Amino acid sequence: xxxxxxxxxxxxxxxxxxxxxxxxxxxxxxxxxxxxxxxxxxxxxxxxxxxxxxxxxxxxxxxxxxxxxxxxxxxxxxxxxxxxxxxxxxxxxxxxxxxxxxxxxxxxxxxxxxxxxxxxxxxxxxxxxxxxxxxxxxxxxxxxxxxxxxxxxxxxxxxxx
Length: 161
Hints:
Number of helices: 3
Shape: elongated
Mean pLDDT: 88
Number of strands: 5
């Protein structure tokens, strides 16, 4: 009996970023829009940077269709911010992500800074939504069994899936 492709599942991962001076605004805190950048980078690593490039070369790409952020506390220059991402994929073109930014102190304790609900949508080369292709679902399933929660060490690395 062959492998049966499940129609849905969860992909997750996390990344940690230092807060650079350039990330802050006049108040000395991380500029609010930069959390969207942190969330984007984290989603790229959850999906896989090389895999996203392969998909783009095949005429498939993702765009953000919805972003809701709830700010709880600020981070500032020199802080470490941990982004935890979890997406629910299915045959639908949309993948809703729950993403949270945490301040990580020197003892490794976490404090919630920003919670976000970001939805991305798969599009074809004509920028039309498409049902999630098997190649993406297969890659997500392989990632869940082999590397869920993997943490790349640089912005250039991609999870093993």
